[in-house]
Amino acid sequence: MKKGVLCFLLLLFIQMGFAQSNLLWQGYFSYNEIKDVSESTTAVFVASENALFSKNITTSQIKTTNTIDGLSGQTISASYHSATFNKTIVGYENGLIIVINEADGSMLNVVDIINKQLPSNIKKINHFTEFEGIIYVSCDFGIVQFNLATMQFGDTYFIGTNGAEIIVNQTALFNGFIYAATNSGIKRATIFNENLIDYSQWETIAPGNWSSVEIFGADLFAVNAVGYIHKYNESTSSFTGYLALNQPSSDMRATVNYLIVTTLNSVYIYNSQMGLVRQITTNQITESNPSFTCATIIGDTIFIGTKEDGLITTSLSSVGTFENTTPIGPSRNNIFALQTTSNSLWTVYGDYTVDYNPYDLDSYGVSKFSATGWLNIPYEKVFGAKSMTRITVNPSNENDVYASSFFSGLLKIENDEPTFLYNQTNSGLESLTFAGPNYIDVRINGAAFDKSGNFWVTNSRIKNGLKVLKSDGQWQSYAMDNILDSAIDNNFGTIAIDKNGTKWLSTSSDGVIGFNESGNKFKKITTGPDTGNLPIADVRTVAVDTRDQLWIGTTKGLRVLSNVGSFQSDNQLTTNPIIILEDNLAQELLYEQFITDIAVDGANNKWIGTADSGVFLVSPNGQETKYHFTINNSPLPSNDINDIDINSTTGEVFIATAKGLVSFKGVSTAANDDLSNAYVYPNPVRPEYQGTVKIAGLLDKANIKITDIEGNLVYETTSEGGTIEWDTTAFGKHKVASGVYMIFISAQDGVETKVKKVMIIR
Description:
Pfam family, one: PorZ_N_b_propeller
Helix content: under 10%
InterPro entries: PorZ_N, Quinoprotein_ADH-like_sf, Secre_tail, WD40/YVTN_repeat-like_dom_sf
Signal peptide: 1-19
CATH architecture of the domain at 161-244: Single Sheet
Protein name: T9SS type A sorting domain-containing protein
Distance between the termini: 24 Å
Organism: Flavobacterium gawalongense
């Protein structure tokens, strides 16, 4: 008997593959936009838009660091690795500095520059220079000292005229002086002068606008804003023109043996005699068309940062071979829309402004994430489709995917390959016409499949704004000029289809339009107590929940239509706000919030994205806010939420922000057809784990009872959806003791049952 118990306990310890420390958040970042590179003798350290990665030269191991690990989601502007202290320093455009201890991965957020009483637009960090344990931080307002040993700031130098703020792009410590390349000349002062905070101690030795200054061997070099390299003449204390570049320089740095100057189109590598050892141009890299941002050398390997193509490596001694060593991720961080299935995740990057202007005409292609990693379909393969703002997967066929372009029409993707672009010439889609007959602009946005396999799309700023691609391949259009105040001025947001086949369309100026082809009925929900009770007619998103309620997200708050079935019976549909009690005061949930998206999980909770306040998770009736995630309390890289979607099988909630994609390992999955796949995680529950136990793979409205090994009931609940949580307390009073606990699951009708076990170790 004892042997059997021991075997059972061993099985519990190895059951499931869940890492308890990894249950909540995961990052899906792009590392393609390289901001800065630095190096040690064994590794290169790379800063991208808002994440880092490093590559060990010996082992080729790549390590990534992003907001999941503690970084800020703000935009990085400079980075530096101190080999002496084994610390990496990251600087941001808003003045934040994060210091990473590479020995243990710990991070320190340094907010002194953010807190300085200066205009926020001049706090950008441009460069780090290390000298005798002190980092000289070049900023858009001056220079700041930071002590790497004490992790404390020292003096701040305002070195402009009469102590004014000026942009300092880079500093260098040379022969007892600190030199600063600024937008108002090259300035210098004696490094050991104890009164460097006095601007009069700094002299201007070269006028003009300078991008960089760097020591190389026994010499000092500087580059001005137009791309002219100068060499310092110590006898005359002046800089002399030395070499003209074809373009302005974006970066200049020195290693032991080489001076490296980077421009948009070239990397120049000079030896100690300033002989040009190697020039790398963008047209040598035939696999892409990169724009260079920075470069460095370790041994014989050149590492080149690019604006959109990641980190490219090549050999210093051999010409012609280039390799991309960037961690695989989405094409860019600003994912505008996404859709997840049980097996994959699709993303698009096009966008429009708050007033639906698509004219940035982003050209970024489409990306797919699956078990095999990221597949990035480049713009060159999408038949010229620009500003793709929605992605829709056929629920009956995951290999049938459509990307809505808010300028070019509708892109069809089959088996991961773009195959056709529907537009005004080959389909029922139409171009707007108010700009003249020769101007082509086909604005497709919201899209959804109905239960019959028909594909419904919205076509903005035309008379026939609702289109359907039927399952037989035929197109049909529905005129909306009678229901919309001005069809040619209207823009559509998302679309939702309820169980009755009613299509709910969000519009920019007419609230919500409901349509059902049975009887060809249109109905409008708009502002005013007698015409719909919306707070504003600008609706961005709609979602139908599992209780047949329509949740409506506007630019000024939230409304709910209590029953979508009222479309058939009521002449005028009316919505209501959700009133909650906060501090014993009645308040409207999400009052005046700009709501960008609403997603319904398997337990009928609502995940609500906002334009500047992060993500809210509210209970099925909205009365309880379970989570409010922001950049301050979670790994969200931005409070600007573009889109949310949920994997109904795993419960993973994908959140697309303006600064990157993250996911939250949600606890609510769609209900299952039976209990054959019911499971418990984490199992065992170890002492260091502070979260809840999840019981997944459930039927809807299943009854769950948890008892100790002696049969004493400690918890009971009924599921909504496919997953429930247990906080490991006895009816919320106290934590249960160590031991094995029995989980009895039964269907609502009692026909199907399941018994599971979980071990808790305190």
